[in-house]
Write a structure and sequence with these properties.
The protein has about 90 residues and is mostly helical. The protein has a single domain, classed as Orthogonal Bundle (Arc Repressor Mutant, subunit A), CATH 1.10.10. The chain has five helices and no strands. The chain is elongated, with a radius of gyration of 21 Å.
Length: about 90
C-alpha cells in the first residue's frame, strides 16, 4: 500500500491524519506524565517521542493551549477551599 493510500484509509477510519493521531497520543501520554510523575519536561518530551524540548513545547501548546510547565503547575497546585469560620452559621 502506498503512503497516500495508507493516509487516506487511515483518515477515513479514524477521522484524522496519521501524524495528527500520533501527536494526540504523544500529548495525552505527556499530560499523564506531567501530572503523575516528577520527571523533567525534557525527559517527558523524550519519553513520548520528541527529540527536542522546544518542538515538544510547541506541539503541546498548539494541542492543549498551554505550555507543559504551566499545565503541570496548574494541575499540581493545591486547590484552596475556603470554609466558613466555626462561629459563622452556628446559630448566631
Amino acid at each position: 500500500m502506498s503512503k497516500y493510500h495508507f493516509a487516506k484509509s487511515f483518515r477515513r477510519a479514524t477521522g484524522m491524519a496519521p501524524h495528527r493521531y500520533l501527536m494526540d497520543i504523544r500529548v495525552a501520554k505527556a499530560r499523564e506524565l506531567l501530572v503523575h510523575s516528577d520527571l523533567s519536561i525534557e525527559e517527558i518530551a523524550y519519553r513520548v517521542g520528541y527529540m527536542d524540548r522546544s518542538h515538544f513545547r510547541g506541539q503541546f501548546l498548539s494541542t492543549v493551549g498551554t505550555t507543559p510547565g504551566r499545565y503541570r503547575r496548574e494541575l499540581n497546585s493545591p486547590k484552596r477551599i475556603v470554609l466558613p469560620a466555626a462561629s459563622e452559621g452556628a446559630g448566631s
